[in-house]
Amino acid sequence: MEQKNWHQWSGEELLERFGVTREQGLTQEEAAQRREQYGWNELSEGQRVSPLLLFLNQFKDFMMLVLMGATLISGILGEYLDAVTIIAIIVLNGVLGFVQEFRAERSLRALKELSAPHANVLRDGVVRHIPAKELVPGDIVAMESGDRIPADIRWLVTHSLDVEESALTGESHPVGKHAGAIREAEVPLGDQKNIGFMGTMITRGSGRGIVIRSGMDTEMGKIADLIQNTDSQETPLQRRLEQLGKILIYLAFALTVLVVLVGILRGQPAGAMFFAGVSLAVAAIPEGLPAIVTIALALGVQRMIKRKAIVRKLPSVETLGCASVICSDKTGTLTQNKMTVTRLWVEGRLLEVTGEGYEPVGQVLENAQPVDLKKDQSLRRLLQASSLCSNAVIYEADADIRGRKKAKEESAGTQWKLKGDPTEGALVVLSSKMGLSPGSLSSSYQREQEFPFDSKRKMMSVVVGHQGGKMALVKGAPDMLLDKCTYILWEGKIVPFTGTLRGRVQSENEKMARSALRVLGFAYRDVKAHENMDSEECVESQLVFIGLAGMIDPPRREARDAIAVCRRAGIKTVMITGDHGLTAEAIAGDLGILPRGGDSMSGRELAGLSDEELDRKVDQTYVYSRVAPEHKLRIVKALQRKGHVVAMTGDGVNDAPAIKAADIGIAMGITGTDVSKEASSLILSDDNFSSIVAAIEEGRNIYENIRKFIRYLLASNVGEILTMLFAMLAGLPLPLLPIQILWVNLVTDGLPAMALGVDQPEKDLMEHKPRGKNENIFARRLGWKILSRGLLIGLCTLGAFWITLSVAPDDAGQLATAQSVAFVTLVMAQLIHVFDCRSSRSIFHRNIFQNRYLVVAVLSSVLLLLGVMYIEALQPIFKTVPLGTREWAISLVAAGIPTFLMGAGSVWSGKRRRKYSGPRRIVTAKSTNIRA
Fold first, then answer.
1. Mean pLDDT over each residue of the chain, to the nearest integer
2. Which of 553, 597, 845, 889 is the most exposed place for a label (fewest CB within 10 A)?
3. What residues form the membrane-spanning segments (predicted)?
4. C-alpha span between 177 and 202 (Å, rounded)
5. Is 329 a catalytic residue?
C-alpha cells in the first residue's frame, strides 16, 4: 500500500478514498480482489535457511578446517586420544554455533505472534468474526478493551479509547485516541493519536476504524523488514580469534618446515625429522583454543546467571567487556515503569510525597514535616478525589517461592502490583499512603455514576453518595479542568476563582510540567437533591478547584550507581526513548546520563539530519526523545561508524531492529516482548540496568582470561619450537622426541590452561577504559611477553639438555638422560610460567594460591609427569629414564629462570617508573563529572 499521511485525512475523505461506506463496509468480492492486490495481512519471515544447512555451515570456518587436518595427522601418528579430543572440540563448536543461529531466526516468528488472530470486520453490512490475516485496506473493524489491533487503522469513531503502545513507541503510559484529523504533516508515531497500530493493545474504551495499511506495509511490518535486512554483527572476540588462528597456523607451519629442513641439512634422518616436524605442527596448532574459549565463556555464563543476566549467545559475554556505549531505553529499564506521585499543590502550598512504586508506604511532607490530615481538609479532599475518581486496583502478590526466605529476612514478603491504568494506580497509591484507600472509603462513599475519561474532554468524573448527600469528583488535564471551575478551596474555605488565583494555578502547572512531571488537576462540587446528573456537562460545571498532583515514572535507584560505574570505566550511557523531551532530559539529568554541555535530540530533529550530520553530533548527544524504530537503528549505526562498540538495551518491539544491529543486544526479561528477547544476545532477568555492569565486568574478565590462556599457550609453543630450532642450528641431537612433544601438548595445554579460564579478575579491572574495537589480540605488550618468555623457555630447555649431554656426548644412554632432562625442564617451565600469566605485571603481583583450580591443575600435571618418568610400563612408550638429584636440580633451576628472571625485571622497572613519574592519580567514585 502506498504510504500516505493518513492522519491528515478526515473520516469522510478516507471512506471516499477506499470506496467504502460506514454502514456496509466492503463486500466479500471486493475484499478478495484487494487481497490479490495487497496480499495477506501477515508479516513475512523472509527466506528461511534449513536447519541442516545451518548446521553444515558451522564447519566452513578456517579454524575448523585446520582442526580437521590436525585430526587426520594425529590419526596417522597413532595419537588416537588427540584425534578423539579434537573431533569432540569440532562437534561442540558446531553445535553451539548452530543453536545460536537457529534461535536468532526465531525473532520474526515471535513478531508474527503479536498480530491479532481474529478481528470483527464489517462485510456486506454485517459484522463478521474472521481471521485477522484476511483483512485488507478499506475494511472497517470494530474493537474494544482487551483487543489487539490487527492492522494499522485510522479511527473513525472512538469512545474513551486508550491504547497501550509502549512496545512500539516507547510511550510509558496508555495513549488516548480520537477520530479527528491532524493537519500537521510530519507527526511522530507517538503523537499520531488518530491511528491504531498493528500489535498494540486496547486498554480502555472502544472504537471503530478503517484499515489503512496491512501486512508488511504496517509499522510492525516495517520493523519486520528492518530485522530481516539487519545483519547481526560478528563480535570482536570472533574476529580476533579468527585472525589469531590464521596467524598461528601460518607461523607454526613455517617454523616447523624450517626446523625439518635445518635438521635434514645437519644430517638428521629425514624420516625422524618428518615425524618430529609433524609433532611440532600438531603441538603448535592451537586446537585447544576454541575449547578453552567455549569453556571460559560457558563458566562465565553460569556466573552471570547468578547475577541476573542470561546469555543467549556465548561470544556476547566478551563483547560487553569492550562496550564503549550503552544505548538504553528509558521506560522500565532506567525507570521503574511505575508511575508515582511526587508533588502536590493545594492552597498555594507545595507538598512533597515520599515513597516509590506501588507499595502504599510513604508520607506527604510540607517543609520536610509530615502533614496532619485531620487539620488539612483541602489535602484530604484531594486525596478523596484521587482515590474515588479512579478504577485502578493495587494488591499484594506473594513473593515467588525462591525469594520467600530472602524476602522474609528483609521483611518484604509481598510485592505490590497494579491492575488498571498506571496513572490511576499512582493516584490510588497516593491516597493509600495517607490511609484513604478505596477500601477504607467504600463504607462512607458509594459510586453512583461514572463518566469515563474522554480524549476530547480530557477528564473523568464520578458521582458518589454519602451520608450528607451526593458529591461530584473530577480529575483531568489542568488546562481543560480550570475552564470548568468557578471556585477554589483556599485556606479551608470555598472562595471565587479569581484571575489572580487562576494565574497562580497555571504558573504552578507550568513549573511542574517543566520538571517533567505529568500533571493532573482535581475538583469537586456538592450535588443538590433536585439536580440532574445524567450528563458530564451537568457534572463538570460550577466546580470547586482543589489542587494539582505531579507524577513521574521514577528512576531506578540502583541505575544511578550503575551509570556512575560505567562512566568510571569509560563507557558512555545514552538514553533513547519514545517519551517527551522534557521528561527524558529530567530523568537523564537525575541519573547522571546528561552531563553539563551534553546535547539532547528529538526524533523529528534526527529525521532532518543526513547520516554525515548525525555522525558529527552523535558523540555529544546523550538523550534522544520521541524516536521511531528506524531512528534507533540509525543511532546505533552512527555510533558504530564512529568506532564504538555499541550495546543496545530495550524491551519493546520497537527496540528489536536496533537490538539486533548492535554489537550486543540486551533485552528485558520481565517486561520485554518475545521479539526483543529473540533478537537479543543477553536478557536481564530482573530488568535492572545495574545488571549490565555485572555483565560488563564479567565480559572484561573473560576476555582477559582468554588473553592469559593465549599468552600461556603461545609462549609454551614458542619455547617448544625454538628448543628444536636452536638444537638443529647448533648441530645437536633432537632434544625432544615426537611422542614427548605430543605429551607436553596434551598435558600442559590441558588442565592448567582451562584453570586460567576461570581466574579471578584483577582489582583494577573496571578502572580502565574499554579496549579499542580494532585492538589486536597481542596489544598491551602481550606479544612481547609471549616472545620473551618463549625465547627464555627454549634457551633454558636447550641449556639443560646441553649441560646434561656434555657429560658424555657420544653415549646413547646419556642422550636419553639429556632428552628426559629437556622434557622435564620444558614441562616444569610451562607449569611455573602459568602462574606468571595470571598478572598483567609479574608473578609477584598476585597470590599464586588464590586460584585453587590452577593449583590443583598444576599439581595434577606434575603427578602425571612423575608417572611418565618413574612408572616402568610408561618409560618405553615415552622414551624416558629416571633422573637423579643432579638432573632434577638442573631441570628445576632452568625451568624457574624464565619466569623469575622476567618477574624480577618487571618489579625493578615498575619501581623506576614510579620513582620518575611521581604519585599516581587515583580516580574515585566522586569523579562523576568526567565526560564519558
1. 82
2. 597
3. 62-78, 247-266, 272-299, 709-730, 736-758, 790-808, 814-832, 853-873, 888-910
4. 10
5. yes
